[in-house]
Amino acid sequence: MTLDSIIVIIKKIIDISLVWFIFYYILKNIRNNVKLTLLFKGVAILLILKVVSDVFELTTIGLLLEYVMMWGPLALIIIFQPEIRNVLEQLGRTQLLGRHKVLTVDERERLVYEIVQAVDYLRKARIGALIVLERDTSLASYIDKAKKIYADLSSDLLISIFFPNNPLHDGGVIIQGDRISCAGAVFPTSNSSKVNKKFGTRHRAALGITEESDAISVVVSEETGRLSIAVKGELFYNLSLDDVRMMLIDELRPKQEDEVLDELDEEDLYEENM
Q1: How confident is the model over 229-249, as pLDDT tens digits?
Q2: DSSP per residue over 197-225, as a string?
Q3: Were both Cys, which of 1, 4, 136, 228 would link to 219 (CB 3.0–4.6 Å)?
Q4: Residue 242, SS3 per DSSP
Q5: pTM for the whole structure
């Protein structure tokens, strides 16, 4: 094998790898968007039909599909303009190398402990709160427009931020790693029809930021004191304190640890069946 042929093979491998990476990256960031997921499924079906029509020489269907594929992209861009804009914004905010700080087990436990302590006090006092935890998708654009704090996380600080008559009471808090980055943050509200009409702006904002990023939102209702968590575009409401603790632990656990735990569960199941 000559040097030129080796270079050609390497170029093809790099080319294919980049294409797969782009597709993976796009699909990863639209998996929570129902409309765009359906759009991709529809495009995939059209491509399959096109291949079938070419193989079996289905002239009429092939001609119709050619017209659809010629003018379809323009129509899709017009119809799905808001969704495409949101995905592009999310792609721009996503950190390619992952989160800026990977927390240790002890740091994650302390993070969850401080948040749970804070929301426990806030729910008993019927003080509304919105706490957003950043993950891989950067929330820098929201931090820039809020009141920057960059302080170590503590339950006392969270409680003081959301205390009534505090100027930052109505906004949200953003936590990066184990530090409070800002307060008074304003998030996009969700327009999802799945959200119960009884929920107000705070809950819709909590859901809205999880629709546009992979963040986790913790909400304390000012009216009822009930706890909710929004993650991956879904709102879990009327949670107990233990529910909040367990959900935060599960969602903050790195993927590598999840894979190890899954392997251990499979091994335990195998040993039980032996």
Answers
A1: 999 889 999 999 999 999 999
A2: TT--HHHHHHHHHHHHSS-EEEEE-TTT-
A3: 228
A4: helix
A5: 0.66
